[in-house]
Known about the structure:
alpha/beta; 2 domains; 7-stranded mixed β-sheet; 7 strands; binds 2-acetamido-2-deoxy-beta-D-glucopyranose
Amino acid sequence: MLQGYRTHSHVALPQNTPDRMTLSILTWLMLLHCCCFSSTFGSSSEQYANQSICHKRRFQELSCSSLNLSSVPNYLESGLKKLDLSNNFIQTLNKESTASLGSLQELDLSFNRLDLLTRSAWRNLVQLQSLNLTGNNLDRNRKRNSAALQSLKSLKVLELSQNNLNSDTAALYLKNMSSLEHLGLARNKLTTLSSELFHQSPTWRASALKTTSLWKSTREPLRV
Ligand SMILES: *[C@@H]1O[C@H](CO)[C@@H](O)[C@H](O)[C@H]1NC(C)=O
Ligand SMILES: *[C@@H]1O[C@H](CO)[C@@H](O)[C@H](O)[C@H]1NC(C)=O
Ligand SMILES: *[C@@H]1O[C@H](CO)[C@@H](O)[C@H](O)[C@H]1NC(C)=O
Ligand SMILES: *[C@@H]1O[C@H](CO)[C@@H](O)[C@H](O)[C@H]1NC(C)=O
């Protein structure tokens, strides 16, 4: 329902195609319609959300979980170490929304609608050590997502469970992730895990293979 307005870009034109003039007017009308529709779209609380709707847990820890957010709140304070954005409807993060998050160490984005990780946004997270992406749609936009993940140089904990990932996509995402100590891949569509994947770092190989969530996904390849 939240993404319903997107379908408007696929409106079919009548079969008896009108002349160019009418066509361009039609196009403008459609554009206008889309703009108006999306700007009034959503409840006001999510459209203009800023940090005031979140809960301060501790010093440098903020929870914005389960607030029906469709984007990261504006004006997040700088210096945050932990940010919980789980259980919302966030589809992507832009670079403005992460600009103040250079100190962030833990980010929970589990159960959102993420399908696109853009490098420009993610490379702001220079100190990120733990990233929870459980329950998103990261089977899409593989190349761009991979590039974004590669930019997280300090990452130790990565949860990619329940993203409908196949073996190839998982391999792509985990390429060069030699700093990882914990990896969650449960409930994806993995059938094989390439030994190449574990070739790069012996310490990671050892610790990753111990994680129960990884084993679960290989034993139960068809459970999504
Ligand atoms: C944050 O939102 C509240 C209401 O939702 C508003 O009163 C306040 O001015 C906003 N703060 C900033 C910095 O925009
Ligand atoms: C989120 O949306 C659901 C369904 O519309 C509603 O019941 C719930 O109260 C909303 N939660 C918040 C925090 O706005
Ligand atoms: C990631 O999020 C899921 C769902 O919210 C939770 O069950 C899991 O423990 C989290 N993993 C980590 C490493 O925090
Ligand atoms: C990944 O690692 C390979 C060799 O292990 C290296 O050639 C390549 O440049 C690395 N890519 C990135 C994006 O770091």
